[in-house]
Each structure stands twice: as C-alpha cells, then as structure tokens.
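Q: Sequence in, structure out?
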Amino acid sequence: MSPDRVPSLLRPVRSPFRDRRHRIFEEPKPDVLESFRKLLNRHSRVYLVVSPPRCSSTAFARVFWEQPSVRYYCHEPFETTYYLDQSLTEVRRKLESPLDLTNIRKVEVDAKADALVIKEMPYQAGPNFPLLAAIAHQPLVFLMRDPRLSIASRMRTKREVGDNPRFPKIESGWELWRRQIEWCETRGVDYMLADSTDFRDQPEAIFSQVFKRLQLPFSRDMLEWRACPEVELDNLGGRHRHLYGAVLASTGIRPETSATPLLEDFPRTDGWREHVERCLAIYREMRDAAARIVPVAVEVPVA
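A: Exactly. Output:
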C-alpha cells in the first residue's frame, strides 16, 4: 500500500459511546489493519495496557519505562477519536511519534531497545478495540481498581478544574472494559488482570509476575524512577494535563492511601449509585478471575 493512500482508508469514528446506538466493536478492515501493523514493524514488541480511568495506569506504565528493552511509550492514542471526533489518521500519527524514553528514564536506554508500550482507556478505544488488540503482542494487560475509588477520584478531578463531576457513565470505563475482556475470551486472546491496590501495595510481587508473563526481566530498581514534570502526556491541548502532574512528579510506585467511599456516598440522582454498584459487581467478579495476578512472595533481583 502506498503511503498516500493510507489516510483515505482511516475513516473517522465519531465520538464512540456518546450514546447507546453504537456498534460495540468493529473488526478492522484488512487493509487498515495491515497499514497499522506495517507502521509498528520497527518495534520488536508492542505491549498494551487497558484501564478504566483513575486506576494508577500511568504509574503502572512508568514501571515499563524503566525496563531495559522498552524505549517508546504511546499515551492513549485513541483519545482524540473520542473527544475531538478525529479519525484513525490521528491515531496513526500518534503511533508514528511515540514518546522516546531515552532521556527520561533514570538509566541509559539499551542501544538495541525498541519495544513500545501503549496505554489506553476502554471508552477511548471504543469500537476500535479489535484494531488495538490486533497490533499488540499477547498477553494484553487489563488494570482495575475498586470502582468506588476510581469513580470518586474521577469526580474529584473533574471538580478541581471546574468540570461537571457527573460525566457520561461510559467514561467510568467499567462496563466496556468487561466487554473487551469478553471479546478477548471469545477469540482466544491471552490477557492478564492486575489490581491497582495490589500493584501499589505489593509491587514486587505483582510486577515480577507481570513481566514474567511478558517474558521480560524484572528488578526492583524498576519501581523507582526520575521525576519528569516537563513531559507532556496530554493529547487535548492541556485539557487533561492536570491528570498527570502527580505521577510525572513522582519518583516511584507508592502504596494506596485513599479511603474507600461507601456506596451511600454516591448520589442517587441520574442513576449514579446504581451505576457504581454495577461497576463494583464487575470488579468483584474479576477479582476472582483466574487471569488476575495475585500477590505471592517472590525473590526479586536488584539490577
């Protein structure tokens, strides 16, 4: 396929999941899938992390930044298809120019390092999740956190910048996240689950297993990093910059400190309490799933 034909294939996907008349998932056209795979051929491995909002997913990704074989990071490349109605052409542009970690990580990047980590939200990938899953190596990584914590945190960050804390419920991520896992199960796509509280409270126990599943070396040194508040992760002209200030200024994985709200703390109006209750049922179901990485005592080397 000639490069000048690519944009015409990447048709716009308008604000997926803004209403419920959408198709849940759209299998990518073969020529579109091939164009994305060719684009990513320069990476020996492409790792995918999918997470509802406010599940410490950027902190999770930062551990990958310190893995010697990883050099590139792409932060939520489908974000603008949701918020700005942009087409897959913009997704392709983001994947073409990921964040180069060479001067960000605390140790020198291996000269042969070329692996890419992609982090994405369920509702932003939306109907394009099959494309996203197809361009990544398995197993995929799905993150979770008690939705009483994640949804309360998102409401709080909305208030902090003057936004409506009662955001579209699809943006809590949970119901679509579960459907994406079901999609993987029905197609034999390998995946694993990691809970934010687990990997923040017992990082060595969780990350040692995550990296083992991905066939990557792990050392406890990867749990500490250099603060990099100058790094720009926001894709929306600063609209979401406030979400990343703390994690970019951080120097490592830290334990969960937030108190878990009660269901009664969420408003009944507009079905919010019922929504949180449904999300909590999904979370509890997946906490018991065989694919969840559970904390076990491990011996972890120091690099």
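Residues 3-10+25-287 form a domain with the Rossmann fold fold (CATH 3.40.50).
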